Amino acid sequence: MSELEAAYERERRLLDELAASIASYRLGSRRIYGQWGVAGELLRILTNPFDGRHEACSQTLRMALVAGVLAELVLAGWASCMDASAADPVPSGRRRQRRVPGAVFVDTRRDTDSVLAVSRRPDAAHRWVVECVLSQRQPRSARDWIVELAEHRTPSRTRGDPRLDYAVEDLVADRLVRAGVARRERGPRGQTRLLPADGHLTGALNATVRIPRMISHGATLSTEDAVIAALMDRVGLSRRIRRDTTYRTVSLASTLPLLPADLRRLVQHAYAAFARDAATAI
């Protein structure tokens, strides 16, 4: 091999190593910026990383988080959202059938020790939602669950244990705190707020533009990211995900038709929960 060929071979090897490093970095970035589930990413997007304030109405944020946790259960195959019917007792002693659109059902398979398999989910938010759904004998729509669970308060806590006020927000925040990317902190008025952990401010800022950037560049969204975009669009928060960025003209509505039927139905029920004071068709 001549000296010129040897130099060419060394340069080609260096370029291959550089390309591998860039690919590894991009893969790592996707893991860092998109690994917290639908609800975790929604909480990062809708929480100001500098002062911990919500970037949306608190009730709307909580509804989006409940819908996100339900979507995670559907994606994992532990829950479904489908039309069903329920039987209500009437004075005559008979039962009257009524339609329940978008009812939430949880997988009730049991392990060999007769314990519900879904109750062993490692995520506390998943277990909490599953327990609430299984506590009701009659099926209820996703809209009803989103409205109800969004109002559940965090159980009483000790003075030295800072917790967020509402259960769904605190449980999803706990996911980020345990991963070391966020921390709870008491604000100047004594309220608990969620802030990025040291070294994770950039990741929190990136969360707000990651999905619009992918759509703008024609990248293929994962199902989780498509659910996030569709939820943000349907509950009127699309401007929050792209505010003051070069991607503010990107449309998030195009992601809804890409979702499976269960998830499309769930997103529509999240919209119905958000607009429940209006005459909203499901």
Automatic annotation (TrEMBL):
The keyword Membrane belongs to this UniProt entry's keyword annotation: yes
Broad class of where this protein is predominantly found: Golgi
Keywords, alphabetical: Golgi apparatus, Lipid-binding, Membrane
Superkingdom of the source species: Bacteria
GO cellular component: cytoplasm; endomembrane system
Entry membrane topology: Peripheral membrane protein
Compartments where found: Golgi apparatus membrane
One Pfam family, short name: GPP34
The protein's name: Golgi phosphoprotein 3 GPP34
